[in-house]
Structure formats: structure tokens, C-alpha cells
Amino acid sequence: MAKIKKGDLVQVITGAKAERGGDRGKQGKVLRVFPDSNRVLVEGINRVTKHTKVGQSQRGTKTGGIEVVEATIHISNVALVDPSTKKPTRVGFRTETVERNGKKREVRVRVAKSSGKDI
Fold first, then answer.
1. Residue 17 DSSP code
2. Whether the Cβ atoms of residue 60 and residue 79 lie closer than 8 Å to each other
3. What are 83-97's pLDDT values in tens digits?
4. Cα end-to-end span (Å), the chain
5. How many CA atoms lie within 13 A of 63 on its CB side?
6. pTM for the complete prediction?
7. Largest Cα span, the chain
8. What pairs with residue 42 in β-bridges?
9. What's the chain's Rg over C-alpha atoms?
10. Do β-strands 39-42 and 73-74 pair in parallel, antiparallel, or remain unpaired?
11. What residues contact 61, with CB distance under 8 A and at least 6 apart?
């Protein structure tokens, strides 16, 4: 089970501060997780300018030019935000036995280390 999933609210914990043009301290929602390269795509974080080649679409409108898009950031540079304190926290796991349709199953639940609450 992954510690950070799509849809989680995370905070950047490394890099340059926001007042110096960086992203440290900013919070955003995880749009996509790339587990093979240990990277995440976070909304509004690590924005880069991308130059795309000028072309034409089917309707004849011009495409391309300079656009600003989000780039991936390494998963170790972000921390999950605790829902109760709104501060970054580490993630732990707790196993629970849940009974569904008469069968008992072991379920892993993500827990915030700082507050001990479920995520």
C-alpha cells in the first residue's frame, strides 16, 4: 500500500521558499502518482514553461506556443497533510479486522503519525 495516493493533500517540504520563487511550504492535491519512478504530479506545484510546436487542429485553429504546466516532483520531497492539524505529517499503518458478508479480512488503514487519526 502506498503512503501517498491520488487525491491526497500534500505539502512540499524541501527546496526554495515561496518568497524566493520556490515551492517549499505550498500545499496541493496529488493529480497522479508514478510508482515506478517514485514521483508525483501535484496541482500548482513545480510549474515549468513548456514550448510546444505550432500546428493546426482539424478545425483550423492554431495550436502550440509557450504554456505553463506542472512537472513531477520526487515523492520524498512532499509530505502528507494531517487532516486535523493541516500540517505535514509522516504516515503509518494500522491493521484492522473487518467483517464483510460473513468473512473476516485484514485491512490496512493509513494513520497520521503526529495525531494518530485515520487519513
1. B
2. no
3. 999 999 999 999 999
4. 13
5. 8
6. 0.83
7. 60
8. 30
9. 19
10. antiparallel
11. none
